[in-house]
Amino acid sequence: MARPSDTGVTGAAPTRAAPARVGGWLALALLIIVLDQLTKVYFNTSFQYGERVNVLPVFDFTLMYNRGAAFSFLASEEGWQRWLFTGLGIVAAVVITIILRRTHGQPRFCLALTLILGGAIGNVIDRVVYGHVVDFLLFYWNNSYFPAFNLADVGISCGAVLLVLDELLRARKKPQA
User: Fold this and answer.
1) C-alpha span between 130 and 61 (Å, rounded)
2) What pLDDT does 8 receive?
3) Does residue 133 belong to any structural domain of this protein?
4) Which domain holds residue 74?
5) Best CA proximity match to 27, nearest among 149, 146, 129, 111
6) Max Cα separation, the chain?
7) HSE-up of residue 97 (Cα within 13 Å, Cβ side)
């Protein structure tokens, strides 16, 4: 996925970001990881598995464990998925870090990648430490439930939406041939 450098020269090799700039994105990813892990520790120590505390008519705090991926994909498998998703998360983190080092002048794109990076690492930590991901945010309407999720998932989802938005806005700026 080649992206133009901030020099505006099409086809030019991307310039490397200044270390301070990359450091800022990595610091934001670290903040997401820390907030994610602190909230998971709180819910893991303050709630019993499956316990729910109603916050709003459509929202509860709860404590759930997910051995799978998004929407509990592969959660019922024998345990191999723990290492598959851990490996995928680590690979994603490495690739995102490399892209952040090579891309600057595109704050929306870098923010999207940073949100995904923080979320991916937050969930990798859970898989390594607990063998599952800790989820605690539960939205529902009547008897319909959205799968429980956590702050890392929020980062990944917001980052993915921002990535799509960035690409759509970039495509609109391209001159029509």
Assistant:
1) 20
2) 41
3) yes
4) 22-171
5) 111
6) 60
7) 15
Q: What is the pTM of this model?
A: 0.81
- Provide the annotated active-site residues: 135, 153
Q: Is residue 40 part of a domain?
A: yes
Tokens of 50: 């499956």
Please state the φ and ψ torsions of residue 48, each to the nearest 5 degrees. Answer: -90, 150
Question: What's the pLDDT score for residue 81?
Answer: 65
* Sign of the dihedral defined by the CA atoms of residues 158, 42, 28, 132, in that order: negative
- Kindly state whether residue 105 falls inside one of the protein's structural domains: yes
**Token pair listed for 31:** 């903040």
**From the first residue on, what is the mean pLDDT of each consecutive set of 10 residues in the chain (177 residues)?**
45 51 92 98 97 97 83 57 78 92 88 96 93 94 92 96 94 72
pLDDT at 2: 47
Q: How far apart are CA 146 and CA 71, in angstroms?
A: 9
Number of domains the chain is built from: 1
Question: Is residue 38 situated within a structural domain?
Answer: yes
